[in-house]
Design goal:
191 residues, alpha+beta, eight-stranded antiparallel sheet, 4 helices
Amino acid sequence: MSAKKLKEWGSNLVTGVLFIVLIFMVFVVVSSKASGGEPQVFGYQLKTVLSGSMEPGIQTGSIIAVKPGGDMERFVEGDVITYKQEENVLVTHRVMEVIKSGDQVMYRTKGDNNKTEDLEPVLSQNIVAEYSGFTIPYIGYFMDFTNSKNGAFLFIIPGILLMLFSGLTIWKAISQLDVSSKNADPADKSA
């Protein structure tokens, strides 16, 4: 295979993969906005870890996958849950004790890196998800930046350039098909 063909093949492969990723991301964002919830991938939500309370297992700046929904009274000692500490503050900590008081279930929690348990028990209705065990270190810093105004602006430009490049590549491919069909042998067209 010649270097030119190899370069063209590689370029087409990269363009195709980037285009598929773009379509997938558009689908995730549109479907999450339509449903009114947070973006989900295969039923999991991705959350950014902004503190070191669960280190070394979950490092600061990591992305974790959590599974929302289900019976929020099902957790046992050792499970890692994500809950609302305040209206816009989510915390992911380990269940240290299950407390049952009448019909109410509460959980005493603690960060793995913290010396003491959290002061207030967590009500089962404040739990939003269970940690799945999946984490990607340091990507959270990048995700947190892209959610800021400056980060969103910086990533709009590459997105537009990617779409323009994809459109140009598709246009070139269609043009080459048209040229090759015009240059085809007239005898082949009559057959």
